[in-house]
Fold 3-oxoacyl-[acyl-carrier-protein] synthase 3.
Amino acid sequence: MRRRFAITSTRTRPPSTWWSATRGLIERHGEEAIEAVDVLITHTQAPDVPFYGTGGGIAHRLGMRPSWVLDLHNGGCAVFVLALNVVRQLLASGAGRTAVIAIAQNSAGQVFDQPGVRRKAQAAVPGDGAAVGLVTLSDRSPVLGIECRTYGEYAGEMTLAPDPPRKWWQPGTGELCIAFTESKITKVLARGNRQVPEVALAVCDWIGLPSKDIDLLVTNQLNRVFMRNWREALELPAERHLDTFDACGNLFGAGIPVNLDRAILTGRVVTGDTVMMAGFAHAGDFAGAAAVRWGGRP
């Protein structure tokens, strides 16, 4: 029998931490389902300790003994799609039957709320939040196709710029902020406008679905310009592109799963709908899209 994997459940609590988000899954599926998870994928926007990720600590706190614990840093705003792709390969290879994807966006309160940084225009956009998804070998809500692309030529273009200049690990008084000059912003806009439709259309071609037949588009949400350009490129009306920007701001890597959960809770996606999740990361060094046929929650 062909192995298929599906998003079984999601839970979000913006603004919050991965822990309160996970409590929602435990309430729905029981502690046993979480403790028995075979694969744990995590991503934290601003780790407390720079040398390693949070996967081991999360596994311990939840009582897990997974065979695989992976922290993904390069997926950025599209990390949920990257994590799905990793999970697909692992579960299809026989590494297990269930996986948890835990994503936390916590830089709004830790980076953008610094006294000097909060006066910058960039500080008005980010929001904090967390999302946890349970993925299993199942036909209930199958992931129909995934496209992930790395654009290594743009790696490292999103940088931190303290004033006065220093390395992040050097002592000093200058606050860390994201260094996006006007010329760099123009380049990132061009890349994002191109990359997200490209990966979404690649998935559409793979599964034989015209983009205009996507029932709901769920993207990361950096700003309204990107959102408008993406749905226009995919020939979708505004009502089929979930917009939580006013309520949540830019949730970075947590944006796609948080918005998917909002769509489910508010009835924007119903059983049988094809949902396209898509986004790009950092200054355009990664982009990914995944299509799911939603089968409803257990």
Remarks:
- The chain is about 30% helix and 20% strand.
- Residues 276 and 291 are 4 Å apart (CA to CA).
- The two ends are 22 Å apart (CA to CA).
- The longest strand covers residues 129-137.
